[in-house]
Amino acid sequence: MQINNWLVYIILCSDSSLYTGITTDIERRFAEHKNKKGAKYFYGRAPEKIVFLEEGHNRSTASKREYEIKTYSKLKKITLINSVKTG
């Protein structure tokens, strides 16, 4: 049985870029990003806030969804973020 406790997230960064990742603990992961642990992406920019969170994934589906979102243009990511906020 697979456990569906993985999350896909998008963080708005200090340079207005959007970072996509996966985790099982969003509070811990966001703190790691704030403390520059893990993703090198945050060495030159700071994470501002979590703007998208998608639940119900297992490790495999989370990784696939992360990859899919990372292929999106910034406009498509913003559309995804807004669809969740208003939907």
Question: How is the secondary structure organized here?
Answer:
Elements: E1 6-13, E2 18-23, H1 26-34, E3 47-57, H2 59-70, H3 74-86
Antiparallel strand pairs: 1-2, 1-3
How widely separated are the two ends? 31 Å
Query: What portion of the residues fall into strands of 2 or more residues?
Result: 25-35%
Strand order of the largest sheet: 2-1-3
Number of DSSP strand runs: 3
CATH fold naming = GIY-YIG endonuclease
Describe the structure.
With 87 residues, this protein is of the alpha+beta class. The protein has a single domain, classed as GIY-YIG endonuclease (3-Layer(aba) Sandwich). It has 3 helices and 3 strands. It has helices at residues 26-34, 59-70, 74-86, and strands at residues 6-13, 18-23, 47-57. The chain has a 3-stranded antiparallel beta sheet with strand order 2-1-3, with helices on both faces. The protein is globular and about 35 Å long. The model has no long low-confidence stretch (mean pLDDT 93).
Short description:
The protein is α+β, with helices and mostly antiparallel strands and 87 residues long.
Features:
single chain; 87 residues; alpha+beta; GIY-YIG endonuclease; three-stranded antiparallel sheet; 3 helices; globular
